[in-house]
User: What shape does this take?
Amino acid sequence: MKTIILDSTYFGVLISLGSYWIGTQLKKKWNIALLNPLLIAIILTMTFLVLFHIDYDTYYEGSKYINYLLTPATICLAVPLYEQFELLKKNIKAVMLGISSGVISSLGSVFLLALLFHFDHKNYVTFLPKSITTAIGMGVSQELGGYVAISTAVIIITGVLGNMLAETVCNVFRITHPIAKGIAIGSASHAVGTARAMEMGEIEGAMSSLSIVVSGILTVIGASIFAQLL
Amino acid sequence: MKYVKQFLIILAFSFGGEVLHTLLPLPIPASIYGIIFLFLALNFNLLAVDSIRETSNFLIEIMPVLFIPAAVGILETWGLIRVKWASYLVITLFSTIIVMVVSGHVTQAIMRSDQKQEEQEQQEEQEEVA
Assistant: This one.
């Protein structure tokens, strides 16, 4: 029976989609930030795999078809960006300085926290690209000599945390303007956070999308400078 | 046929992005090239938004789901993370919140000061007219 289930091409997608659906239902029932559908989906899928001794490769064999759509979906973020372009142009100074401050505070906070935890150079540079999109971040980590596999995990965890906490952080710290919210979410938590920003509104989504592109490119330059510090 | 054409266009940009990523020696992934070129095509009226709208909305809506396989992949790196997981989590959590608060507030503060300046200019103009 187990092999029949595992050999099915649809198994990986089914378990991922099913877990996400359960996540959305829980979120609907109790509206708390911790019940983030994406986080629930990840935990449920992981639990399922561990419990039934299914290895990741078997799961990925089917779920790679979801992964396949990630690049086309990310590219579609150009649509909200295009539709909010007038608003973006009007606020270009605030937007660009906002994203730049995000990049500097990301690199700076990683530097300070790495000092605090007595990280060595290799561990430190592993965390420098944590707030940018996975594909760029992996390259940065490799270039600087970090642990690429750990960087990838940290980038994804950052995204999930951003997705989860976006609303709470904006409320608690009084980030109220939709443009500022979008910049905050995209600069801190790349495409995974942007998925949440898109749900908050068209302006939030557009600004968050722009932040992925700009902060990604700025971090390539900034990280190579910060790497010299420790 | 609508969806076939829409998906075709989106995949064409994905393909183009991937080709550029392979050809150019820059650390920029296919998706970033794709966003930039799709944006330029829309902005310079080479492509109408309506010719991709439904499929684009669909893909953006399902986006959170698309991250599940990669995130579950953390199971594979758990062995490496386990030793220092607490400090890793603290750094990740705090740095994420710091970036959100700083970039959000810098954006908001500059927007407010720009707005004030604009209002002041308008007021001065009105006074001059009066």
